Amino acid sequence: MIALRQFKLTSNEEIITEVIDYADSDGGLVVRNTLKIVSMENMAMGQRFFAFRPYVMFQGDHTHVQILNSSQVICETTPSKDLIVEYKKNLDLFQSH
C-alpha cells in the first residue's frame, strides 16, 4: 500500500513523498514523487511562505523511484489535509512540464 508521508531529515530539509515499499536489507524507504518543502520568511511583513521543489532533479514522473536512507530521518508524520491538497496540485504541475 502506498502511503503519503512527510519527513524531517537530518539535513534540516522537509520532504513529502509517496512511500511505496521498504528496502529489505538496510531499512531504507523506497519512495517516489518526492517534493522538498521550501520555507521563506518576510520578517518585515511577518509572513511565512511555502513552496515545493523537486527533491531529485529530472525525476519528475511516477516511474522514477529513490531509496531514502532511514538513518537520515529525524521525524515522520502524516501530512495535513491542506498540505496534501497543495502537494497534489504542485506534483501535477511538475509532471506536466
Description:
- This protein is globular.
- By secondary structure, it is α+β, with helices and mostly antiparallel strands.
- Helix content is 16%, strand content 47%.
- It contains 1 helix and 6 strands, in the order ββββββα.
- Strands 1, 2, 3, 4, 5 and 6 form a 6-stranded antiparallel beta sheet that branches.
Shape: globular
Helix-and-strand structural type: alpha+beta
- What summary fits the major beta sheet? 6 strands, antiparallel
Order of helices and strands: EEEEEEH
Mean pLDDT: 88
Helix content: 10-25%
The count of helical stretches stands at 1
Rg to the nearest angstrom?
A: 14 Å
Low-confidence stretches: none
Q: Which percent range describes the beta-strand content?
A: over 45%
Distance between the termini: 28 Å
Q: Give a count of the beta strands, DSSP E runs of length 2 or more.
A: 6
What are the main properties of this structure?
97 residues, alpha+beta, 6-stranded antiparallel beta sheet, 16% helix
Would you spell out the secondary-structure blueprint of this structure?
Elements: E1 3-9, E2 14-22, E3 29-42, E4 47-54, E5 66-68, E6 73-77, H1 81-96
Antiparallel strand pairs: 1-2, 1-6, 2-3, 3-4, 3-5
Task: Put the structure in a nutshell.
By secondary structure, this protein is of the alpha+beta class. Helices cover 16% and strands 47% of the residues.
